[in-house]
Amino acid sequence: MPKKEQFIQSEVREDKIHDRFVIMAPGRSKRPKDVGEEEKFSKKQIEAEKKACVFCPGNQKKVPGLYFAGDKNNWQVKVVKNIFPAVTPENKKVYGYQEVVIETPEHYKETGDLPLDHWIAIMESYINRTSELSKDKKIQYILIFKNKGGKAGASLHHAHSQIFAAGFTPPHIINKLTKAQEYRIEHGNCYYCDLIKKEEKGSRFIMADDKAVAFTPYASIYQYEAWIIPRNHLDNITVLDRQEITSMAKMMKYIVTKLNKLEISYNMYLHQSITDKDEHFYIRICPRRSTWAGVEMGSRIIINTVLPEEAAKFYRE
């Protein structure tokens, strides 16, 4: 007789610092699905897009650079103003800046395919622009993010990320910082410092070195979600040393490469509250393999059909 398939019961997991409930329901991953995956584009379509791509070097005569890695005429990474910003320094009602980090001059290059030194150059562009934007005393919050794939909200194929600097701090960020402070008062330690010690010894561990640790969080709201956290209690990306930059870039490249092989869309982001000097900086990678439906939108309770422990095994393989 065929072996009877084991049924794994659902369970609720709570992340008190980030104020969320997640239902882990691995059995639902086998439910029928008739929605198509990522849209595929032919080489002819992408070639036509390349001719009009505003991120390709030959099409950027009217887009001045704010930062270059490499020579201005032969750059490796280039940062420009977002020409369709939601916030601007001229708007008193919604003050801020939006910038685009063009991660490579090559239209077909996936970020995961870039060598480690190129990843380091991208990280250094984030550091430079975060430092510059932080000089504006009106800026309270900076978010650096990357959308890869249609399900993650990407509108262009050319590899890029974005920097969003605002004159306000989102309420959920304030709530998270408040809860982290409450944890520090109650336990006498940083929540994220304690989290590193716990996760690097457990089943959600992905990889680590003497500078950083990568793992899948206990209450992951995304399938195959991963966090990368520096071991040192560092407030933001601008205070990373060269070894820490290299370590985190290496882990980002590893995780993103795994996702690219499966053609999974993802969001990757890191953020900073300018007014809080005691945050523990980390990078969050959020694959967008599933679509949130009525339960998630109505109750804000997320259903995740892939256990973080299983996701960590996928990354470790």
Automatic annotation (TrEMBL):
Its EC number is 2.7.7.12. Zn(2+) binds at residues 53, 56, 107, 158. The active site is at 160 (tele-ump-histidine intermediate). Residues 199-268 form the HIT domain. GO terms for molecular function: UDP-glucose:hexose-1-phosphate uridylyltransferase activity; zinc ion binding. The keyword Zinc applies. GO terms for biological process: galactose metabolic process. Its cofactor is Zn(2+). Keywords: Carbohydrate metabolism, Metal-binding, Nucleotidyltransferase, Transferase, Zinc. Binds 1 zinc ion per subunit. This is Galactose-1-phosphate uridylyltransferase. The lineage of its organism: Bacteria, Candidatus Kueneniibacteriota.
